[in-house]
Write a structure and sequence with these properties.
This protein is of the alpha+beta class and about 120 residues long. Strands 1-2-3-4-5 form a 5-stranded mixed beta sheet. The model has no long low-confidence stretch (mean pLDDT about 95).
């Protein structure tokens, strides 16, 4: 059985591949600023996308995307602000969620402009 950290990293790898298959360029994985982290930072066309990845083995306790609450969104925004400052980026941005259910019937759902 995988640890929670390893499960999270595996889900992030799946999400990165999913985005690449859709034509996104992955710029960073697990970007950290202070105590905050962004799972994936990607670009498609002229939009910089900050992606929060959530996964669960099944939906018995709800869908993974439900775990991206207001507190988590705030932390992702803080980290995104630091990334934007560090890279002097002034273009369009978006915050997405990728929800992955890893159970017998694997499912990946991409929520664009989620928050």
């Amino acid at each position: 059985m995988m640890s929670k950290t390893n499960q999270g990293r595996a889900a992030e790898a799946m999400a990165a591949q999913f985005l690449q298959d859709l034509g996104y360029e992955i710029l960073a994985r697990n970007y950290q600023s202070h105590r905050w982290e962004i799972d994936l930072i990607a670009r498609k066309a002229q939009i910089l996308v900050f992606v929060e990845v959530k996964s669960r083995a099944n939906t018995a306790f709800g869908y993974p995307e439900a775990a991206v609450n207001l507190k988590k969104q705030t932390y992702v925004r803080y980290a995104a602000e630091q990334y934007l400052l560090a890279h002097q980026y002034t273009g369009d941005i978006r915050f997405d969620i990728i929800s992955i259910v890893t159970g017998p019937e694997q499912e990946i759902v991409h929520f664009e402009d989620a928050f």
